[in-house]
Design goal:
heterodimer, A: alpha/beta, 18 helices, B: alpha+beta, 3-stranded antiparallel sheet, two-stranded antiparallel sheet
Chain lengths: 475, 181
C-alpha cells in the first residue's frame, strides 16, 4: 500500500508537470518569443496560429528568428507569423516556399525557395555588436558584409542593375540605418562596339589619376573606346572604390572605375585581352559570350587564363556534339547556344592554353595511333576546374562526380592550405606521385574512351595550371 | 493524511488543466512540435578519417555522404567529370550562411589563422540541402564543435539549383570552399 501511494504521488507530479507544460502555451507575443527562445525553437512562416499548430512540426529549427505581430480577432488568429524573404521586395511568398513544407522534422535552415532567406536577428546582432533585439528592416542596409560592394553594377554599359549580393546585403541588414538599398539601373550609357585596334595599355591610361587629358585625336585613330567618343575634359575616375570588405579587390574595383568613367568598351576589352576571334558569331552568340566573359573576368583564375591566351577562334558548328577544341585550327567550337557558358568555355579555353603552352602533339587529340598522355591532358583540364572552384569558392559551386575524381578536391584543398593559402607553382616529388595517382585513378575510370588512354608518367605536373596560377592574383 | 495529500494533488491538477484549457482554448496540441522542443542538442562527429583529414558531420543527418556519387545505376555523361555551375547567388548565399555563424571579431580571428572550410554538400532530388560534411584547416583545430554544428545547420534547408545534367539523380552532391580572408 505504501508503495502504491508513492507511485501515485510520482505519477501525479509527473502528470501535473507534463500537462502544465503542454497545455499552458503562451498567450501574448512577448510570451511566445520568450517561450521560443527558452525552448530553442526556430519559428517559421505561418499565417495564423492554426497554421502554426498544423504545420510547425515540419519545421524543427534550432534558433528563434522572426518578427511576430498580434491581432485581436480571436485565439486562432491571435498570433500572426510573418516572414521576409531575401528578394528584398516582399514578405513571405507562400508559393515560393512550397518546397520547405516537405521538410522532415529534422530539417532546419532556410525554408524559402530560390535563394529566399530567413533573417537571423541573433547572428546579425553578433556581427554588428548590437545587443538589443532588432527587427528585420528590409529597407535598411548595413554595408558590412563579406562581399558587399555598393559600387557594383552588373553591367558596365547599356544599363545594368546594382542588386549586387542582395542576399548578402540583407544578411547584414539588421541595423536600421543607411544606406537604403535599391535596385536601380546603373551605367546606362551605351556600350561601344569592339575595335580591332583596341590598345589596352593606351586606353587604361586615359583615366589615370583623376584626369583625362588624353590625346583625343590619337584615341579616335586607335579607336580604342568608341567610334564616336563623347569625351570631355572632366575629371574621371573620381569616385572612390574603397569599401571595407574582406574580399575587396582593389585592382578589379579600380578597373571598373576607370572603365565606367569613360564609357569603356567591356566586350572589346575582353576580346582584345584574350585575343579571340569571334567574327563568325551572330549577335546573339556574341551577347552570350559577353556574359560568359564578364563572369570569368570577375574570377581571378579564369581572368588569368583569358589574359594568357592568344589568337583563339570561336565559332559555332551544329554538327559538333559537344564543345570542342581543335588544335589544328586553334578553334573552340560550340554546337548550340546553350553550350556558351562558363563551364564549357573555360574547359575548352584551357585546352587551347595547354596547346599554346606545351605544344601537345596532335596525335593525342586525333587518337589514331598512340594516344598516350590524353588522359593526362583531360585530367589536368578537370583539375583546372577543381582548382578554380577551391580557390574561388565564393563564386561557384563545384561538383565532383564519380568519374575517377574522388578525393581530388580534398587533395587540392590540402595543397593550398599547406602552401600558405596558395596553390603551388611546382610540385615536390611526393606531390608529383600524388598527382600521377589521381591521373591514373581518372584514367582507370574511363577505360574505353580517350580519357582512358595510357598515362604518360613524364607528365607528372599540371604545368598549364601552374602557369595560370603564377600569372593570377588569386589569394 | 497521505490520502489527503493525494487528493489535494488531484484537485490542483484538475483545476490547472481546466483553467489552462479555458484560458487558452487551444484547439489541439501538436505533439511533434513538443518533441522538437525536447530534442537532444546536436553534436559534431568524426564521420571518417583518412591519412590527412578528418570529416566532420552530424551523425543523425547521414543519408548520402557515405554513398558513391553519382548513385549507382544512374545514367550520366562521363565527360561531366567536374561541373562548375554558375549559380553565383546561391554560392554567395551559402557562403554568407557560413559567415553569419561568426561574430566580426571571431571572423577576423579566423582570417588571421588563415582558416578555411571545405564543405561536401548533399541535397535531395529537389536541391534542398540535407547534410553537410566539413573538412577544416589545421587538423580541425580552427573551429569549435559548436561552430561546426552551426555551420552545418545554417546550410541545411537551403536550396541549390541542380544543373540539368544531374536532375534525374536521387540526390545531388557538390562541394564548396569558404576561405576566411
Amino acid at each position: 500500500m505504501k508503495n502504491m501511494n508513492k507511485v501515485s504521488i510520482v505519477l501525479v507530479i509527473l502528470l501535473y508537470l507534463s500537462l502544465n507544460s503542454y497545455a499552458c502555451l503562451p498567450e501574448t507575443v512577448d510570451e511566445w518569443i520568450a517561450w521560443a527562445e527558452e525552448n530553442d525553437v526556430n519559428c517559421n512562416v505561418y499565417t495564423s496560429a492554426e497554421d502554426f499548430f498544423d504545420n510547425a512540426s515540419s519545421y524543427v529549427i534550432d534558433e528563434v528568428l522572426f518578427s511576430l505581430s498580434q491581432t485581436e480577432t480571436g485565439i486562432d488568429d491571435m498570433i500572426e507569423f510573418t516572414g521576409i524573404c531575401d528578394d528584398g521586395t516582399n514578405t513571405y511568398n507562400e508559393s515560393a516556399c512550397d518546397e520547405a513544407v516537405a521538410l522532415s522534422p529534422t530539417d532546419s535552415g532556410d525554408p524559402c525557395d530560390g535563394g529566399s532567406y530567413l533573417y537571423n536577428v541573433d547572428d546579425c546582432n553578433e556581427q554588428t555588436g548590437e545587443t538589443e533585439d532588432l527587427q528585420y528592416d528590409q529597407d535598411a542596409c548595413n554595408p558590412w558584409n563579406a562581399d558587399y560592394d555598393p559600387d557594383y553594377c552588373s553591367s558596365l554599359c547599356d544599363g545594368g542593375s546594382d542588386n549586387y549580393n542582395e542576399i548578402g546585403c540583407e544578411l547584414s541588414n539588421c541595423i536600421d540605418g543607411s544606406p537604403n538599398y535599391s535596385d536601380e539601373e546603373c551605367n546606362a550609357s551605351s556600350c561601344s562596339s569592339w575595335s580591332p585596334n583596341y590598345d589596352e595599355a593606351y586606353c587604361s591610361s586615359l583615366c589615370d589619376e583623376g584626369s583625362n587629358n588624353y590625346d583625343e585625336v590619337s584615341c579616335e585613330v586607335s579607336n580604342c573606346i568608341d567610334d564616336s567618343p563623347n569625351y570631355s575634359d572632366e575629371e574621371c575616375n573620381a569616385s572612390s572604390c574603397n569599401s571595407w570588405s574582406p574580399n575587396y579587390d582593389a585592382e578589379y574595383c579600380a578597373s571598373l572605375c576607370n572603365q565606367n568613367s569613360e564609357n569603356y568598351d567591356l566586350m572589346g576589352c575582353y576580346i582584345s585581352k584574350s585575343s579571340i576571334n569571334i567574327q563568325s558569331l551572330s549577335e546573339v552568340e556574341k551577347s552570350l559570350l559577353k556574359m560568359v566573359l564578364e563572369q570569368m573576368e570577375k574570377n581571378c583564375y579564369f581572368s588569368s587564363l583569358m589574359d594568357n591566351i592568344t589568337n583563339v577562334n570561336i565559332e559555332m558548328l551544329a554538327s559538333k556534339s559537344t564543345p570542342t577544341y581543335d588544335p589544328t585550327t586553334n578553334t573552340i567550337t560550340f554546337d548550340v547556344d546553350a553550350d556558351i557558358n562558363v563551364h564549357s568555355y573555360a574547359a575548352e579555353l584551357f585546352h587551347a592554353f595547354q596547346q599554346q603552352l606545351t605544344g601537345i602533339p596532335l596525335e593525342i587529340y586525333n587518337n589514331k595511333t598512340d594516344c598516350t598522355g590524353s588522359s593526362n591532358i583531360e585530367f589536368e583540364e578537370h583539375l583546372s576546374q577543381i582548382v578554380e572552384g577551391v580557390l574561388t569558392g565564393s563564386y561557384d559551386y563545384f561538383i565532383t562526380i564519380g568519374s575517377g575524381l574522388e578525393g581530388v578536391d580534398t587533395w587540392v584543398f590540402n595543397l593550398i592550405v599547406n602552401n600558405n593559402g596558395k596553390f603551388p607553382t611546382s610540385f615536390t616529388l611526393a606531390q608529383r606521385n600524388e598527382y600521377l595517382y589521381y591521373v591514373t585513378q581518372f584514367q582507370q575510370a574511363h577505360l574505353g574512351s580517350h580519357y582512358g588512354c595510357p598515362v604518360d608518367a613524364s607528365m607528372s605536373e599540371p604545368t598549364s595550371i601552374f602557369a595560370v596560377i603564377s600569372n593570377s592574383n588569386c589569394l | 493524511m497521505k490520502k489527503h495529500s493525494i487528493a489535494t494533488y488531484y484537485v490542483v491538477l484538475c483545476l490547472t488543466v481546466v483553467g489552462c484549457s479555458i484560458k487558452n482554448k487551444i484547439p489541439k496540441i501538436n505533439n511533434e512540435l513538443l518533441k522538437s522542443v525536447e530534442q537532444v542538442p546536436q553534436k559534431i562527429s568524426v564521420l571518417k578519417r583518412d591519412s590527412t583529414n578528418s570529416y566532420f558531420g552530424i551523425k543523425g543527418d547521414i543519408i548520402y555522404s557515405d554513398k558513391v556519387y553519382p548513385p549507382k545505376d544512374s545514367k550520366y555523361d562521363e565527360k561531366l567529370g567536374t561541373y562548375n555551375s554558375s549559380s553565383e547567388s546561391e554560392a554567395l548565399a551559402s557562403k554568407n550562411a557560413v559567415l553569419s555563424c561568426f561574430s566580426k571579431e571571431r571572423y577576423q580571428e579566423l582570417v588571421n589563422l588563415k582558416a578555411a572550410v571545405l564543405m561536401h554538400i548533399y541535397t535531395d532530388e529537389k536541391g534542398i540541402i540535407k547534410e553537410v560534411v566539413l573538412i577544416t584547416t589545421n587538423n580541425n583545430k580552427h573551429f569549435t564543435d559548436n561552430e561546426m554544428v552551426q555551420m552545418i545547420n545554417k546550410m541545411k534547408g537551403m536550396k541549390i539549383t541542380i544543373p540539368p545534367a544531374f536532375i534525374n539523380f536521387s540526390y545531388f552532391e557538390c562541394h564548396q570552399v569558404v576561405w576566411f580572408k
